[in-house]
Specification:
With 209 residues, the chain is α/β, with parallel strands linked by helices. The protein is built from 4 helices and 9 strands.
């Protein structure tokens, strides 16, 4: 009994002394792999459906489960996802003003998180809806999931917050890109553009527009 209480106390003390780090995710348009489109889309609202609070992103722990570093977003996760989609449609030439857009992208943040126990890992899981601006009807809805892991990283290497931030950024971008370039989603849009490619080099922070 004493041993169990001692472990619980140590875990509590470890959590209270855990480092809190604010991070910003980014979006890096991928050269030669984006499906371009017509400027007919705007980004609507995303809702945080996770069990965690809006700013929580992830946590790094020791092998025994003691928290050592907690990552928090600078903006709510739903805003970060909204901004990632906005950067994605801008990079593809698909962005339109809200009052002239034919379609809106909206949805739910089902999961956006990262963790470090033995290896750093991040996941993004989004429900994405394509909504007709003409009548508000949802004409496409699907869940997109992406995962990233750094199998070569060890806790002793340090700088875990930077590694987790990068994995979370790329997992979110993978889910966003898969959604925007999804063949069925594009097929539901009138005047589906021909596949074109363009080069973009600079990453965009998705907490600042």
């Amino acid at each position: 009994m004493f041993k169990l209480h001692s472990l619980a106390l140590l875990a509590l003390l470890g959590f209270t002394s855990c480092t809190h780090t604010q991070v910003s995710l980014d979006y890096k348009p991928r050269e030669g792999s984006m499906r371009m489109g017509e400027p007919v889309m705007a980004v609507g609202n995303f809702v945080n459906m996770r069990r965690e609070g809006p700013f929580f992103l992830g946590i790094a722990t020791t092998a025994l489960g003691t928290p050592v570093e907690m990552l928090e977003m600078r903006v709510p996760v739903e805003e970060a996802v909204h901004n990632a989609f906005l950067h994605a449609i801008v990079a593809r030439g698909m962005d339109a003003q809200a009052n002239s857009a034919k379609y809106f992208i909206s949805g739910e943040v089902l999961q956006l998180s990262c963790r470090q126990v033995s290896r750093p890992y991040a996941m993004a899981r989004l429900r994405v809806n394509l909504v007709s601006a003409a009548n508000g009807r949802v004409i496409f809805s699907r869940i997109f999931t992406a995962e990233r892991q750094d199998a070569g990283y060890y806790m002793a290497q340090g700088n875990v917050a930077s590694v987790l931030r990068e994995l979370a950024s790329r997992a979110l971008q993978d889910a966003v890109d898969h959604a925007i370039d999804d063949a069925e989603l594009r097929g539901r849009m009138n005047g589906d553009s021909k596949r074109r490619y363009q080069r973009y080099d600079l990453p965009n922070r998705i907490d600042i527009l």
